[in-house]
Amino acid sequence: MRRVVGVLIALCLALVLPACGTGGGAKTDETKRAAGLVPKDALAYVSVDINPSDSQKSHVASILEKFPKIQRKTFDSEKDQLLGMAVSKLGLNYETDVKPWLGSELALAVLPDTPEPDPVALIKSSDDAKAKPALDKAVARPDADATYRLIKGFAVVVPKKHANLLDVIARQADDPASALSEQDKFTRVVNQLHDDRLLVAWADGHGLVELAKAAIARTAGRAQINLAALPNVGMAALDVHAEDNALAMAGLVETPGTSGGGDTKLTGALPENSLGAITAWNLGGGIDDLLRTVLSTNAQITNAFQRAQQQIGLDIRQDILSWMHGETVIVAGPPTAGTIPDFALVVSPTDKTKAQAAVTKIATLLEHRVGVKLDQRPAPGGGTEYVFPAAIRQGIQPAMALLSDKFILASSPEYLATLAKGGGGFDSGSAFKNTLDSAKSGTQFQMVLQLSSIRNYVETLLTGASKARYDRDVKPWVDHLDAAALRVRKDGSLTRFEAKATVK
To answer: Residue 352 and residue 335: Cα distance in Å, rounded?
Structure first.
């Protein structure tokens, strides 16, 4: 069964990666699909549509045509190749054994069991009479650990040792009103996804956390993990879809009783030509919680951490993390001198007094313990800027300053001055607009990469044989990549996440 399920998962991934999309067709009705055969106590479920709408196929073609090394430029031709490669591992010929009966959906459900949950594969059949010989051939292989039954137009595949699950699915098929697809815990999250999706996934977060707790408890004495620290989450769902010249994913998790996130004003004010930016909200609190958990369960790590703090002269939690509970950004920009990109850490301090004390303490420690006396000069907009007395190498002369609205640690005084100006319009640039569209309140984590600019920078560093290999083996795959982004944000009792990559 593991082999059969593994191939099914490979099929799902293979189809999603090159061909995920939304087509502007009718809303997906999960009650008429595999979810209508899945028991309501399922822990997780994933479904892939292998016969999407015409507009979906058009979106896929708009992506495939950008990659010269991909010979097949349509959804159907790429699908046939990938499915052929996958079913060959089961000793089947796709064109003669599978394609004549394969329907529009591949699905996988995870049902509760002790000590491990059971996987159930569901393959839509358009012709049961043609499906039976192929399935008989697949499960008859010496290394096959699976059995199947054709139920309501689906080939249901389960492990041999859990053949009784076929009876469970058969009974569920006769009672569609109690199936997973009809349950509020499923519909209330799945119905918030894109209407015409290629892939949908759902999970009972609470059930999976309880399963993880039970597994951890069985390792008592071997793993020191605070079970109470595991999050209390509800239902979760995501979809994968395509837009014109873009691949995208969106989803949500029920996270009641939690808060966090905020506006990303520092990120939005970065220079528009930035190569990329990673934003985190309450980074100090997150790292502090992690340290507290780790240090409370491992004396050896605690001692090593304390020795390290004594050596550098800083109390990481009090001196640094205590004022980093707002927005923190790591940003990189095109090099202004030398070949190394400009880079910086930008923080919106939540306790400016502690932030100023940290800056002063760091400058003092560098002078007394390292022998580096930082130059002091007026900072842009007021305050004091601390600068290394000389460049470490061309383009690298670290500088830091606590300004009225932010702390900046930059790779050079010039880049610090650029970031101090603000109003750069990063969130109105093409990389941001084409991936995340606009800034959102409640953002907890965000990453935006200007892939085309990063590629152009990397290409300036290549010469000789390295450039020749790059031009031959890598450039055809990356030449049309434009931008990529990921965002996680709090939205009331939900945590929403989205990711997108664009091509041009």
So the answer is: 30
Which pair of tokens denotes residue 229? Answer: 């620290």
Return the pLDDT at 124: 96
Q: Which amino acid is at 260?
A: G
Q: What is the mean pLDDT of residues 308-321?
A: 94
76: which residues sit within 8 A by CB, 6+ positions away?
A: 57
Coil/strand/helix, residue 40: coil
Neighbours of 405 (CB within 10 A): 14
Per-residue HEC secondary structure of 135-153 comes to HHHHHCCCCCCEEEEEECC
Side chain identity at residue 71, one-letter code: Q
Do residues 180 and 207 touch, judged by C-beta distance below 8 A? no
Q: 331 phi and psi, to 5 degrees?
A: -130, 145
Contact of 57 with 49, CB cutoff 8 Å: no
pLDDT at position 95 is: 95
Distance of CA 125 to the CA centre of its chain: 32
What are the C-alpha distances in Å from 362 to residues 185, 356, 369? 51, 10, 10
- Is the distance from CB of 401 to CB of 379 less than 8 angstroms? yes
- pTM for the predicted model, two decimal places: 0.89
204-244 residue pLDDT tens: 999 998 888 777 777 654 555 565 666 679 999 999 998 99
Which residue bears the tokens 């009972």?
204
Dihedral Cα 213, 214, 220, 226, nearest 10 deg: 10
pLDDT digit string, tens, across residues 415-452: 999 999 988 899 999 999 999 999 999 999 999 999 99
Query: What is the C-alpha to C-alpha distance for residues 287 and 319, in angstroms, rounded to an integer?
Result: 13
Beta bridge partners of 399: 387, 410
Where are any strands of DSSP class E within 334-373? 342-347
Q: What are phi and psi of 34, to 5 degrees?
A: -60, -30
Q: Read out DSSP for 42-85?
A: -SEEEEEESS--HHHHHHHHHHHTT-TT----SHHHHHHHHHHH
- What span, in angstroms and rounded, lies between the C-alpha atoms of 292 and 233? 22
Q: 198 phi and psi, to 5 degrees?
A: -90, -45
What lies within 8 Å, CB to CB, of 78 at 6+ separation is: 18, 19, 60, 64, 70, 72
Between CA 194 and CA 20 the distance in angstroms is 12
Which tokens sit at 64? 């495939």
What distances in angstroms separate CA 205 from CA 43, 56, 180, 191, one per listed residue?
A: 8, 30, 15, 17
Q: DSSP secondary-structure letter at 470? A: I
Query: 374-400 burial, b if ≥16 CB within 10 A, otherwise e?
Result: beeeebbeeebbbbbeeeeeebebbbb
- Closest to 90 in 3D by CA, of 142, 32, 24, 150: 142
Q: Which amino acid is at 469?
A: R
